[in-house]
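User: I'm new to structure prediction. If I give you an amino acid sequence, what do you actually give back? Let's try with this one:
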Amino acid sequence: MLGIQGAEVQGVHRRGKYILLPLLGQGLEAQTLILHLGMSGGMSVQPRTQPTHPLVRHTFSLNDGRELRFEDGRKFGKIWLVSDPGEVLPPLSPEPLEGGLTPQLLAQSLEGRKAPIKALLLEQSIVAGMGNLYADESLFLAGINPTRSAAGLSGEEIDRLQQSIVNALTASIEKYENARDESWPDPPRALTGWSHPRTEGAPCPRCNGPFTGTRVRARGTYYCPSCQP
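Assistant: Good question. You get back a string of structure tokens that encode the predicted 3D arrangement of the chain. For your 229 residues, that looks like this:
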């Protein structure tokens, strides 16, 4: 990528679904490389001599003979090089796993919103980093029907939902960290880090009743009508 030759990565940060790599080099303007992995993207560091996977879309040469490779089979990922990350980052909620997304803040964000709670959980200004699968998982753990109006949730339900969001994301990260430790430098992706089935009619792990599949704002959604009234 033009403009970053000779730059050094000063750190690796995440904000929601965005990966931020601040860069600095002698005679170069301070810049930030921002990556969004989309739905199927991934990053890996490989020897330059290793054959490049056909789904690698971008490579960045490192000074030790290796390459940082951005693989993206579905081509939904994006890369930016900016002076100010604010040029790219949309409005984002506080990070759920850093204590900023409190039950009180979540309640405030949902107040008066009549849209289905599942749809609102996918708004990054409400829950930064939340994706479709883990919105379903969070609602399942909290016992909340994804089609319910957010404005109709009680304070106790919002408390449960906030804790379920933290639990769902924490469990997923732990699963990926274990897989990375076991399989480095080529860890698996798209792990099933949720506890409920994503198949119409599959048995609920709690009550053994059939799961229901529907769509909420065009997103595939699965829930147990008995456990999530």
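You can read the tokens as a compact description of the fold. Here is one thing that stands out. The longest strand covers residues 18-24.
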